[in-house]
Amino acid sequence: MSGPLRGMLIADFSRILAGPYATMLLADLGADVVKVEAPGGDDTRDWRPPVRDGVSTYYLAVNRNKWSVVLDLADADDLVLAHRLADRADVLIQNFRPGALRRFALDHDTLTARNPALVYASISGFGTAAGADLPGYDLMVQAAAGLMSLTGDADGPPYKAGVAVLDVIAGLHTAIGILAALHHRGRTGRGQHVTVDLLSSALSGLVNHAAAYVSGGVTPQRTGNAHPSIVPYEPLPTADGELVVIAGNDAQFRTLCRVLGVPELADDARFRRNTDRTAHRDALRPLLVAALARRGSAEWFRELRAAGVPCSPINSVAEGVALAQRLGLDPVVTVGGVPGVRHPIGLSASPPRYDLPPPDLDEHGTELRAWLAGE
């Protein structure tokens, strides 16, 4: 295989989203990923609709460039093969309930006693101490971490994010941790235990909101589509729809006011600086809305974009993909007839590769069992 991680073998005992997303990113970068599935397969194979050719698109989203083998850990012969895979692997990743793999001798301590160079990555929902018995589903963690308390209208109920964003963040953290451990191994010859939990990933991913509480002693609240610290930074109505309008600094606000035909707002003492605008947001918003009401979203988008003011229509996913295509970002790659989203990282000397479509259950089982058996 090509790519910067060529020659790296990853034994992937994870399932659903965070782990498979991490291993797909690494597979795209050249690692050989063996996806170990229970006889029933990864849960996401049954998470449908939608489907493509009868296969769950949820599963397809995070499993390209992998080899699938079914191993029943309760079967003695299959367990032997699982151990052989772990002994050969550079990386093992799993998201079983903390401690669950100990009875199969597939835990970190047992495996690294035999294979001290192994990088062993564990993903949990709430860590391995008092939260070890809690299942790690994204929605649970969105609720537990406070993300839902920040999502929705100020006077409405809390909402979940529209995507399993914390699973994705945890998957990214896992990939970063694995790469850091591999770099450490390159210097020392020894692997280590990479641990990631969704709750910690969530709190890290809350960034300024978490800092508002941890550093400032302020518990942030829902503000709908508005931003607690930047004004304007929200969708605003125009003559025919809504347009996201952002003034990330005072110069952008001045340009926004000029394009909208209300330059006097930039000199108003209530709105001159961002801190002023934040304090007087309720007075500023209707003035901007009145100016935007003179034209439609598409026309304002063209004029504001040309002037360098950050703005965007509110697209559907289809329109978002189409925008990326128009911008030359080539968002879609097709592997074995299965379209998917391109790897987001560009590398000039060793770019991501797209060799294998998401595998059918046990698609490579015969070859992998023979390889593990030494035949």
Automatic annotation (TrEMBL):
Instruction: Determine the domain of life of the protein's source.
Output: Bacteria
KW Transferase (keyword) present: yes
**GO molecular function, one example?**
CoA-transferase activity
Keyword entries, A-Z? Transferase
Entry's SUPFAM superfamilies? CoA-transferase family III (CaiB/BaiF)
Q: Which Gene3D superfamilies match?
A: Crotonobetainyl-coa:carnitine coa-transferase, domain 1, formyl-coa transferase, domain 3
Q: Which Pfam families match?
A: CoA_transf_3 (PF02515)
PANTHER family named among the record's database cross-references = SUCCINATE--HYDROXYMETHYLGLUTARATE COA-TRANSFERASE
Q: What is this protein called?
A: Crotonobetainyl-CoA:carnitine CoA-transferase CaiB
What organism, scientifically named, is this protein from?
Micromonospora humi
